[in-house]
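Exam revision sheet. Question 4 asks you to relate a sequence to its structure. Input first:
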Amino acid sequence: MRRVALTICGVLMIATAGLHVAFWPALGWAEELQAITPVSSGILQVLNICFIAVLVWFAGMSFYLAKRPTLHGFQRSVLVFLAFLFLLRGALEGPFFGWGVDAFVTMVLCALTSVAYLAAMRDPRAKPLKALAPSRG
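Answer key, structure tokens:
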């Protein structure tokens, strides 16, 4: 289950990075960004480039963690962070970009990504907590 969920998340991260690369031609940024100040245009483009790098890192982490036999504290915290980040991203879609079909699709994809990252935390090999407690016998 974890391997499949994290592999799907990794593929989604690469696809999302590709989408962000396509912002320049798809959104006509060559013309659009001239309507704002050069500083704002630069900030927007730099943040987009940095986010592309972060998405590629997310993909790499997803593929790496998919191959791990078990996940430990920090690895699990990475999954919680990614789940929270995509839940937040989905929640911000409507207020910032409107409530059309595109927004709905983005919100659903973000929610599914969050669920997949949280589902990947489940480890069938992990011992139940009661098995770790000392016996009082």
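Marking note for examiners. The chain has seven helices and no strands.
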